[in-house]
Amino acid sequence: MREIHAGSLRAEENGFVATGPRHEDRTADLDRLERAFERLSSDERTVLWLHHYEDLSLAEIGERIGAPARTVKSRLFTARRALERALQLEDR
């Protein structure tokens, strides 16, 4: 089952119509993101994954990887920058 967010729908006479990006466009974006993600170091991937996909706080990530929350915050910043650079490389 595919989830559709209400914000991506518009009302029409016969019901709602999806207005968001097409499936092919979303698939291409996900492929691009996956390739960029693979360019990162394992440490960078780990902090990004734990924070953005597992929705853990900095303190919780710190407990998992054995680092203070301030260190996690710094690593997360660095990992985001690395991901930005990797995405730029994918666009070339």
Q: What structural class results from the helix and strand content?
A: mainly alpha
Give the beta-strand count: 2
Fraction of residues in helix: 55-70%
The CA-CA distance between the termini, in Å, is 34 Å
Please characterize this protein's 3D structure.
Helices cover 64% and strands 9% of the residues. The chain has helices at residues 23-38, 42-53, 58-65, 69-91, and strands at 9-12, 15-18. A two-stranded antiparallel sheet has the order 1-2. Strand 1 (9-12) and strand 2 (15-18) form a beta hairpin. Helix 3 crosses helix 4. The longest helix has 23 residues, at 69-91. The two termini are 34 Å apart.
Could you list some keywords that capture this structure?
mainly alpha; single chain; elongated; 92 residues; disordered N terminus
Summarize the structure.
The protein has helices at residues 23-38, 42-53, 58-65, 69-91, and strands at 9-12, 15-18. The chain has 92 residues and is mainly alpha-helical.
List the helices and strands and how they pair.
Layout: E1 9-12, E2 15-18, H1 23-38, H2 42-53, H3 58-65, H4 69-91
Antiparallel strand pairs: 1-2
